[in-house]
């Protein structure tokens, strides 16, 4: 039987990263944060001086990413880039390289490689649609744009980084529109995905919902 996959897709700042990592822990499954791969491609491009629209060169960088995930940290060659890939520059860069079909294709095999026993929780935008279309469990995790902006606002405040609700709302709306409108692997709720709206749910409640869905399929 194929290794089971829990595919969790959804928009930016929906809390899906936190929920997915925790679900993987509870189920003792492997975990893939696919967004970090797009962030790493953006980082690799910036380091190599490759413009974010040079598709063939970006695809070559994506195919040879010297990246490792270990103990919750992200490594690029010998550098711990866990924080660097979360900067605004890498976030914006990731969403630009993510529209390129050749980049997405170059990352496909690497993502599927994470599918190892006893199972995988994979999180992103196209886990259920493109990377693991045969996933037994598909979740579309979302929340209102206001609650996502609030969440991000709190995170930035905790880190002492400047932000305004207004600009965060605008940024999320722009990113949602880009993710939904792109021609390759747009973000959408699949007919065979369950909807999990976390607008008024805490992390533990959302985790319990997904774990229950995996253990007791309808
Ligand atoms: O999820 P995260 O915010 O880290 O993703 C960073 C960027 O990578 C997003 O802007 C999104 O457009 C892109 N992405 C994607 N497909 C995925 C995961 C992320 O296009 N499976």
TrEMBL record:
Instruction: Give a yes or no for keyword Kinase in this entry.
Output: yes
**So where does this one cross the membrane?**
none
KW Chaperone (keyword) present: no
- Cytidylate kinase domain span: 6-215
Q: Report any one BP term from Gene Ontology.
A: aromatic amino acid family biosynthetic process
Similarity annotation: Belongs to the cytidylate kinase family. Type 1 subfamily.
Its name, as the record gives it, is Multifunctional fusion protein
Q: Which organism is it from?
A: Azoarcus indigens
Which residues of the complete protein appear here? Answer: 428 to 645 of 650
